[in-house]
Design goal:
The protein is mainly α. The protein has one domain. Helix content is 76%, strand content 0%. It has seven helices and no strands. Helix 4 packs antiparallel against helix 6. The two termini are 20 Å apart.
Length: 131
Amino acid sequence: MTDTTTPRPVRIAGWALTGLFTAFMIFDAGIKLARLPIVGKTSAEIGLPAGSGFGLGVMEAVLLGLYLFPRTAVLGAILVSGLMGGTAAIHWVHGSPWPSHILFGPYLAVFAWGGLWLRDARLRALMPWRA
């Protein structure tokens, strides 16, 4: 194994994390793009402007596309991390529960980066995990 190859089990684990992250993001962006009433209700509860869900859904879809396209995957992961940090901040300000609301965005960012890191040997070489 060279530094640019990824063992099959590691690659599968990476794609599993990426798949979970992608499935959630497709769901989340989809309900916002479909303008489901629950989006407006929950957005209002945390102080977001009325109608902002659609724009957030577009942004999530674009960031997901950047993340899934190999040439822009790292940029997509960086931008997704910023978005998820913003969700954590909004929930923090509104006194939401820690594990279920405040930390949910950071959990997703970890899944995004974890999936990318596991499936990309170049990223692992750039950011090694050492004991």
